[in-house]
Amino acid sequence: MEVKHWVLLGWALFALSGVFFLIDAIESGDKTALGSAITWILGVGCFLVVYRGTPEE
């Protein structure tokens, strides 16, 4: 596997952890955790956006 694919996999796993964090925040009703989870997912999305439509090297 190329380095780019490992990096993308790592960011995808970070995003998945944010989704689990978001689910837990919703279930517990914790507004601070909810805001943190949303911020986490948006931050990961900012890093992942560079992989959208980039040509293979």
Short summary of the structure?
The mean pLDDT is 89. Helix 1 packs antiparallel against helix 2. With 57 residues, the chain is mainly α.
Question: How does this structure look, described?
Answer:
The protein is mainly α and 57 residues long. Helices cover 77% and strands 0% of the residues. The longest helix has 26 residues, at 3-28. The model has no long low-confidence stretch (mean pLDDT 89).
Could you list some keywords that capture this structure?
57 residues; single chain; 2 helices; mainly alpha; 77% helix
Number of helices: 2
Tally of strands: 0
Task: Work out the strand percent.
Answer: under 5%
Radius of gyration: 14 Å
Task: Give the structural class.
Answer: mainly alpha
C-alpha geometry? elongated
Q: How many discrete structural domains?
A: 1
